[in-house]
Amino acid sequence: MKKFSIEFKWAALATLAALIWMFIGKSMGFHTEKVRFEVLHEMLFSFLLFIFYWLGIRQKKKDYFNDVMQWQQAFMTGLVMCIMITLFFPIVQFITFNQVSPHFMETLEQALIHDAKMSIEEAEKNASFDLFLRNGVMNNLSFGIIFTTIISYFLKTKNYDQIKAAAQKPEMVKVKKQKGKSKRK
């Protein structure tokens, strides 16, 4: 498990940041009077999530791979982080909709009926915990894979093949011959 400790650390930090982001959203009114802008608020968190992926993959490159990392290694690191973040996501959703904002779904439903002119049935279907959970899982997976692909490209070691080849070649040690007498006793 030590092999994935860096990924776990950054996935846990991203999950903690998501919980804090939910509290910020509630305090700014995105769970009550500004509920129709809640989707934009969540999209802003994606930029913050990008930073967590970047820092996690960069730390893995530095501490685990000794600053020499292929694109595939960087991508696998990000993919493991993505899966962990996605697995932690239901916890964030549960805490948000049961503890932080227990009336969020009703507020969203009313906003959909009045502002978006939806029928009651459509509003109930669009303001459900199950839908938010499914959409969140799909968004975490898709954004995570996209972010990981981009970050892996920029954090890979640019001349990996040359570095790997140099590391596998035995070093040649040159010994200078002394001219003149040899010092034997």
Detailed description of the structure:
The protein is mostly helical and 185 residues long. It is 72% helix and 0% strand. It has seven helices and no strands. It has helices at residues 5-27, 38-64, 71-100, 104-114, 120-126, 129-155, 160-168. It is elongated and about 100 Å long. The mean pLDDT is 88.
Key words describing this protein structure:
185 residues, mainly alpha, 7 helices
From the N-terminal CA to the C-terminal CA, the straight-line distance is: 58 Å
Helix share bin? over 70%
Q: Which structural category fits the helices and strands?
A: mainly alpha
Question: Can you give the mean pLDDT?
Answer: 88
- The run of helices and strands is HHHHHHH
Biggest pleated-sheet summary: none
Number of DSSP E strands: 0
- Stretches where pLDDT falls below 50 for ≥5 residues? none
Number of helices: 7
Shape by Cα distribution: elongated
Estimated radius of gyration = 26 Å
> Which percent band covers the strand fraction?
under 5%
Ordered list of secondary-structure elements with their pairings:
Layout (H helix, E strand, L loop, with lengths): L4 H23 L10 H27 L6 H30 L3 H11 L5 H7 L2 H27 L4 H9 L17
Helix pairs in contact: 1-2, 1-3, 2-3, 2-6, 3-6, 4-5
TL;DR of this structure?
This protein has helices at 5-27, 38-64, 71-100, 104-114, 120-126, 129-155, 160-168.
